[in-house]
Each structure stands twice: as C-alpha cells, then as structure tokens.
Amino acid sequence: MGDTMNKKKRLNKEEDSIKENLTQALNLPQDVTLGASLVTVTGKNEVYIENYKGIVEYDSDYIKLSTKKGQIELRGKRLLINYLTNDEMKITGRISNISFL
User: Fold this and answer.
1) Contact 89/48 with Cβ under 8 angstroms?
2) Longest C-alpha distance within the chain, in Å?
3) CATH number at residue 88
4) What's the number of domains the chain is made of?
5) What is the pLDDT of residues 49-93, one digit of tens each?
6) Contact of 49 with 39, CB cutoff 8 Å
7) Which of 25, 48, 59, 77 is deepest in the core (most CB within 10 A)?
8) Can you tell me the distance from the alpha carbon of 67 to that of 39, in angstroms, rounded to the nearest whole number?
9) Owning domain of residue 61
C-alpha cells in the first residue's frame, strides 16, 4: 500500500514538473495553466488574491491562506477580508509583510 502511495506522489510531481516546463516554454500565464495564485498589491493597504483554496488562520494582525502550491501569509494591523468568493478575495488594512510558504 505504501509503495502505491509513493508511486502516485512521484507521478503527480513528475506531471506537475512537465506542466510547469510546458507553461514556461510556451510563455503561458501560470495562474491559468497551473492554478497558481495571483496576488495583486495596491500600496500598503490593499491586496487581491485569486486562486486560493481556503483560509487557515484569520485575525486582525495575521491571515494565512492555503493555495494549490503552498500557503500565503499576510501580517499587518487591522487586517480585514472585505469580500471573498470561491476563488478570490480582497484584504485591506495596514499590510506589513506577505510571505509565500
């Protein structure tokens, strides 16, 4: 059973690698072809995030989101999710740091 799981993981990684290489070779947008997150920052007070999977943690100083490729952390003051849909959200507040994990 363990070997089957390892083979599936390896095949998924190989498939992802092929998709990434093809996307780069054809100069295609990663947010469309790979489902990569698109983060648009407007000054220090506004962030739009597209292609997120879920909210992991949320309070007024810290927001952590899960994505297809990992996680995104936002730190700041008075952080607020102004709106969200199934695949995008707008965050406002005094944003001091954005990290990709």
Assistant:
1) yes
2) 50
3) 2.60.40.2000
4) 2
5) 998 899 999 999 999 999 888 899 999 999 999 999 988 999 999
6) yes
7) 48
8) 11
9) 35-100
